[in-house]
Design brief:
Blueprint (H helix, E strand, L loop, with lengths): L1 E4 L4 E8 L4 H4 L3 E14 L3 H15 L12 H9 L1 H6 L12 H8 L7 E3 L5 E2 L5 E5 L2 E3 L2 H15 L6 E8 L4 H7 L7 E15 L1
Helix pairs in contact: 2-6, 3-5
InterPro entries: Hisat_C (IPR056483)
Protein name: Histidine N-acetyltransferase C-terminal domain-containing protein
Pfam family, one: Hisat_C
């Protein structure tokens, strides 16, 4: 759970599984839902998986082709505070309350207008085989953009992966069916679980 102080409010946001009881959820304001796509494989299967899906992306979305970019920390900070990202990409409209003047000024300076954005976590071990790779979120409503960011993110992490992988990708529920279809493959990367959701909720502190 995170608490963030703003000029006119103090609010806490946290995530709940879709199996939370109605009684528990009644304590919070529901801001957004995210569908979770879960895949698993040995790390050796990732290379063929990436190659297969990259070819599919290029064949199916020739007119929309672009190359995702990796942002520096300073660029990330500007992007997540920009009006475009807060209003159009982040679930629940971004941060609770009203941001500080410094944050607003930083966001206005951002030249980026992304169609999808991801803030990836570092792979961490879980008690199931060896490593779970948790993609923190991919924000966006364009299926092509989300697929392109998904592949770029996985490709950038490939050198630091080993053993057995379980990786979650959190996306807008409207994107989930298309992303699942896109991830169908012959490379032995399998679906770990069917559709499930995470709920973003907020409460006053």
């Amino acid at each position: 759970m995170s608490a963030v102080t703003f000029h006119r409010s103090l609010a806490g946001r946290l995530c709940r599984g879709d199996d939370s009881s109605s009684e528990k959820l009644s304590r919070y304001r529901l801001l957004a839902k995210e569908g979770i796509l879960c895949l698993f494989c040995e790390v050796g299967e990732i290379g063929p998986f990436l190659e297969e899906l990259q070819q599919r992306l290029e064949q199916e979305y020739k007119a929309e082709a672009f190359n995702p970019v990796t942002l520096s920390q300073a660029e990330e900070e500007k992007a997540v505070l920009s009006t475009n990202v807060v209003a159009n990409l982040l679930p629940g409209g971004g941060q609770p309350g009203s941001a500080s003047q410094e944050g607003a000024d930083l966001g206005r300076d951002c030249p980026l207008r992304p169609n999808a954005l991801s803030l990836c976590t570092i792979p961490y071990p879980v008690p199931y085989h060896h490593v779970a790779l948790h993609f923190n979120n991919i924000f966006g409503h364009s299926l092509y953009s989300v697929c392109a960011v998904f592949l770029a993110q996985l490709r950038n992490l490939l050198s630091c992966l080993s053993g057995y992988l379980i990786f979650y990708t959190y996306v807008h529920p409207s994107i989930w069916p298309g992303l699942k279809q896109f991830c169908q493959n012959s490379s032995n990367v399998m679906f770990f679980k069917d559709y499930w959701e995470e709920l973003l909720v907020e409460t006053d502190l």
